[in-house]
C-alpha cells in the first residue's frame, strides 16, 4: 500500500512540475521574458570552474628498453571530495585529452581520449585491466600489474607491467609532477 501511495505521489509531483514549467514558458512567451530552465546547471558548472586550478605538468613515461615520452604542458587540477582530477591535452599528433583521477584510497584511473581511448587502472600490488578502444569499435584488454604507486601532493609515480612487458621482461615508469601557475 505504501508503495502505491509513493507511486501516486511521484506521478502527481511529476504532472504538477510539468504543468508549472509549461505555464512559466507560456507566461515568458507572452511578456517576452526568457526563463532559463538550466540555471542550476549553469551555477553548478561555474562553481566547478572555480574549483579548477591551472597547473604546469611535467609528464615522463619511460620503459626499461630506454624509450621514453617526455613533455611539459599546461593543464588543470580539480579537488573533489574523494579524489583529485588532473586534466591536460597531450602535445601529440591527435591532441589526446588525458584525465587522471587520483583517489584517496590509493587508486589511480587514467583515461586518454584520442584516436584510441585508453583506460588504465592502477592499484598497488594488484592486477587490473588496461583497455584500449578504437573509433572503429575494436577493443583490446590486457592485464596490468602495479609494482609501485606513490602519491604525493604534487607528484604521481607509477611503475607498472603489462602482460606484453612481462613477456619481454620489462616495465613502464610513469612520473607526473605539477605545480600551480600563478
Overall mean confidence score, pLDDT? 83
Order of helices and strands: HHEEEEEEEEEHE
Uncertain spans, ≥5 residues at pLDDT below 50?
Answer: none
**Biggest beta sheet attributes:** 10 strands, antiparallel, barrel
Per the principal axes of the C-alpha atoms, what is the gross shape?
elongated
Report how far apart the termini are: 61 Å
Total strands: 10
Instruction: Please estimate the helix content.
Output: 25-40%
Plain-language structure description:
With 182 residues, this protein is α+β, with helices and mostly antiparallel strands. It is 26% helix and 51% strand. It has 3 helices and 10 strands, in the order H-H-E-E-E-E-E-E-E-E-E-H-E. It has helices at residues 2-30, 39-51, 163-168; strands at residues 52-63, 68-79, 83-89, 97-103, 107-113, 116-123, 127-134, 139-152, 155-162, 172-180. The chain has a 10-stranded antiparallel barrel with strand order 1-2-3-4-5-6-7-8-9-10. A hairpin with a 2-residue loop joins strand 8 and strand 9 (155-162). The longest helix is centred in the N-terminal third of the chain and has 29 residues, at 2-30. It is elongated. The model has no long low-confidence stretch (mean pLDDT 83).
